[in-house]
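Our platform keeps sequence and structure together, in a single record for each protein. Such a record has a labelled line for the sequence and another for the backbone structure tokens. The tokens are whole numbers drawn from a learned vocabulary of local backbone shapes. The remainder of this section carries one protein's record, kept here as part of the documentation:
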Amino acid sequence: MLVRVLSENTSSSGKLDSEHGLSLYIETGTHKILFDTGASGLFAENAEKLGADLRVIDFAVLSHGHYDHGGGLKAFLGINGKAKVFVHQKAFEGHYANRPGGTKEYIGLDEALLPNGRFVFCCDSLVIYEGLELLSGVRAERLVPSGNSDLLLKVGGTYVRDDFAHEQSLIISENGKTLLIAGCAHNGIVNILEKFKAEKGAYPDYVIGGFHLYDRGSGQNEAPETVDEIGKYLLGTGSQYYTCHCTGIESYKRLKAIMEDNISYISTGDMFTIQM
């Protein structure tokens, strides 16, 4: 399986720009998949430079309803005229963030894209094709990112704390092995993995995604003791991790110190193969 990082907070190439966002191009044995679209059309510009043809994408998955993962949706729909986009039915709700001075900033998706027959709105876990399914309905029970406290949902004229019911992960199964791809893990990467294990009977062989251990709004990293506890848990799963985006560099360094070769950081322009 081939994975190309089209958009991420950092870049491994001077020829490719980066942004606060995430977009991955994935080739399995049977499908070409786009996972998230970054914050803008940058993912498409980088895809062209990397030789990744977005016109042949079979389907796209949107991990949740924040602009840094779905800001490039319009660009993708303009480039690819056939692929369905699997998005949670709550993703287009009013997602906001607290900002300095008590202001509320809209950080959601472009509502002008609705209605659209290309969108497949999901509710619970869903099988897309054989070996390809979505995981949702994760309960945020422990080791939940503290940065979630500044992320809100507007209901009528009231702002309430976002419960991230709009978050979903992609599971790819091939040759007896599994890959779990998360976007920001707002419900907590530990809780997502526990949900996966409860449904599949074991942890995934590989995990890709951001773990939201850095809050961009406040510029704060997750508490070191929390990161250490997460790192010990992840190490105990026996999975191989590729992290990025909202994990944050400082938190990644702490995870790396604990997990060593079991975790790597991926950047814009990286291309790697996962042995499935």
About this structure: The domain at 2-266 is CATH 3.60.15.10 (Metallo-beta-lactamase; Chain A). The chain has a mean pLDDT of 97. The chain has one domain: 2-266. The two ends are 7 Å apart (CA to CA).
